[in-house]
């Protein structure tokens, strides 16, 4: 199970998403839907270890984790397939 609590990402004085909370159970498929600039890709990049969160916590199977890079994310079963390869 993946749980995020109060996850926030800011960059260059701009908040990209704020206090996001979500729980995803094993086997569930989840879609993030929203307009351009809503923070969907940034959230995925935080979960994939591309960007560190500014605030908040990530839990996997009830244990708090710090996902610092793609290898760590992969070890926790998180994989992100980018839509564009550039």
Give a verbal description of the structure.
The chain is α+β, with helices and mostly antiparallel strands and 86 residues long. The protein has helices at residues 40-47, 70-75, and strands spanning 2-11, 14-24, 55-60, 63-65. It has a four-stranded antiparallel beta sheet, with helices on one face. Strand 3 (55-60) and strand 4 form a beta hairpin. The longest helix has 8 residues, at 40-47. It is globular, with a radius of gyration of 12 Å. The N and C termini lie far apart (31 Å).
Write a short abstract of this structure:
By secondary structure, the protein is α+β, with helices and mostly antiparallel strands. The chain is built from two helices and four strands, in the order ββαββα. It has a four-stranded antiparallel β-sheet, covered by helices on one side.
Topology:
Layout: E1 2-11, E2 14-24, H1 40-47, E3 55-60, E4 63-65, H2 70-75
Antiparallel strand pairs: 1-2, 1-3, 3-4
Q: SSE order, as H and E?
A: EEHEEH
Helix content: 10-25%
Going across the biggest sheet, name each strand in turn: 2-1-3-4
**What is the number of helical segments per DSSP (H or I, 4+ residues)?**
2
* Main beta-sheet strand count, sense and barrel state: 4 strands, antiparallel
Can you tell me the residue ranges where pLDDT is under 50 for at least 5 consecutive residues?
A: none
- Span from first to last CA? 31 Å
Task: Give descriptors for this structure.
alpha+beta, 4-stranded antiparallel beta sheet, 86 residues
